[in-house]
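Protocol step 4 of 5: obtain the predicted structure for the target chain.
Materials: sequence only (see below). No template structures provided, no constraints applied. The aim of this step is simply to have a reference model before the mutagenesis design in step 5. Sequence pasted as it appears in the construct record:
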Amino acid sequence: MTIYDILMQSQPEFKTMSSFEYNQDSDSEDIERLTLTDEKGNTLDCYVENAIEGNDGTYLLLMPVDIPVVILAWDHEDEDLEDSEDITNAILLDDQAEIETVFPDAKAVLAELDLSLKLTAFTLTVTGELPPIEDDGILNLELETDGPSLDSEELQFLKDFYHQKQKYSIYTPLSPLLFLARYNLLGKVDLVSPEDEQMQGILEELLFDDIED
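Step 4 output (structure tokens):
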């Protein structure tokens, strides 16, 4: 399970809409970007990294234009937390109401790094130049999977902040956050889970073609 899956599963009420119109005869420049919109009206601008035709529509590999970030909540105080390899007490913030509650504080501390935090659809994003990556600022976040093992996501530390005595940390994934979407025959774009077995072959083809290009 990836951060993408957690974000999607934690917000099942969201439906992905888009003003994107796909034309097989159009140039690649015409489908270079699309905008996803959730039911609250939040938007997320994405690059179309790759596209392939399927029996039930066109499958798209999308990457946010801006830099995705996540917020972690710590379940206890620890002054040496950043130097600890034990991150079992880190909880990925995925409740939309809680994210909106702490958003002003998160936005304020990121402004100190000249980063502008945006409440975008499906993931928070920032604009600006990220600070240099430092080894002691990288966190390996273990994510639950359907199998016996755990997936690990590498995150770059950006900033800590407090809200009502609760400690939070803001990180950005080191690996690109990719969305798998389908532009169906009815002219609608829906996000689909890459964990779906039926999507594995399509995702591999999208990724393989994208690497070759």
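Step 4 remarks: The chain has two domains: 3-65+176-212, 67-173. The longest helix spans residues 96-111.
Proceed to step 5.
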